[in-house]
Write a structure and sequence with these properties.
Shape: elongated
CATH topology: STM4215-like
Oligomer: single chain
Helix content: 10-25%
Distance between the termini: 8 Å
CATH class: Alpha Beta
Largest sheet: 6 strands, mixed
Number of domains: 1
Number of strands: 6
Radius of gyration: 16 Å
Number of helices: 2
Length: 141
């Protein structure tokens, strides 16, 4: 059921807000040009899509969701590195670390929450702005 995703996304966002070093967080994505350096590192959780999985004739579909966690940080103009980006990306990845006998990550009523697609990063090729986009799949019953 699609409506089951909202409380799961709220629970995920509550966990992501606890990541050390994040200055700004929201469930409404802002463009990096609207997030000044003093408001970064910034983290956003946004919903992307729902995908139905049909399990048989007459059985309601199971709906999986896709969200993006987007992180903005500033590149150090002196060294060319982004010292804040990778620790935050790693903390996001660790938020969805599988555990328990089923080797899953259960947040809220989700059966599993995991990263299944590549994490896209740009460590300052856009000037001093660094960006990471982390796709997160939510599996529900």
């Amino acid at each position: 059921m699609i409506g089951a995703h909202e409380p799961i996304q709220a629970a995920i966002f509550a966990l992501l807000q606890q990541i050390p070093g994040v200055v700004t967080s929201s469930r409404i994505l802002a463009h990096w040009s609207d997030v000044p350096p003093e408001m970064q590192p910034a983290l956003y959780l946004t919903h992307v899509s729902y995908t139905p999985t049909y399990q048989g004739r007459g059985i309601p579909p199971k709906w999986d969701g896709l969200c993006n966690v987007t992180v903005y940080t500033q590149r150090d103009s002196e060294t060319g590195s982004c010292p804040a980006l990778l620790p935050i990306v790693e903390a996001v990845v660790n938020t969805f670390a599988p555990s328990g006998p089923a080797n899953t990550c259960t947040i809220g009523d989700a059966l599993d929450v995991r990263i299944e697609s590549p994490i896209v990063t740009d460590e300052g090729l856009l000037g001093n702005q660094a960006v990471a986009i982390i796709p997160v799949t939510i599996f529900t019953a």
